[in-house]
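hey so i finally got around to running the thing on that chain from the lab meeting. sorry it took forever, my laptop kept dying and i had to restart like 3 times. anyway pasting the input first so we r on the same page abt which one it is
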Amino acid sequence: MDNVPSSTRNNTISVRSFLKAAASATTLGAAIVSYMNEEQTRNIEDTLQKHQEQIEMLEEIVAGELHVDESKYLEELKAALQKAKDEANEEKRKLYASYLTACCHPENKEKSNRRIFLDLVEKVDFNGIRILKELKTHFSGRKSYDYFIPLFNDELSKDDIIILLDYLTSYRLIEICTKEEIESFYARLGRVGTRRPSNLSFYKRTVLGDALYQFISKGII
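ok and heres what got predicted. didnt touch it at all, straight out
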């Protein structure tokens, strides 16, 4: 890794220059992950390629070159690639790449819970992230499981969505809205006589779920 350019200022590196300076994704992966078979090598190459493409797009969005702390970035690379190397699903590898890209976003630089977010990324997929995207941290009046059926273009059945909501609830990323929250919502709208929906059908992001979404959304380009 000696050929990777590094800035003497605050021990930071340019992410794009770092990735391009490595001889290949295989070389970079081998330097980070001690042992890889052929399939694991392909998975790492794919994850790094996706990460590099996302970095190039992110730099266009933030209008500048991205710099990160070298030691922290290498730790995050190692942790994410250790998980990605055994991931057969391409969409999930893309999510690991998005995690790495989110780590490089200027708004996420000071976040100290990134390893927690990586553990959560291992447990969810893009469908779970899409659910988090649609929810707020409070009851919004319409986010029941029926709402999500057209969102997924019938790719998921009603039962699939209910199971996914229960799964996200089990990891405390979302939670069921309380009756009081629903009553307060309709009171603010002035709908005193409106028939209330069952509170068992409506969900909101938890503090943890909101933090995960706010973090990972910065890397989904």
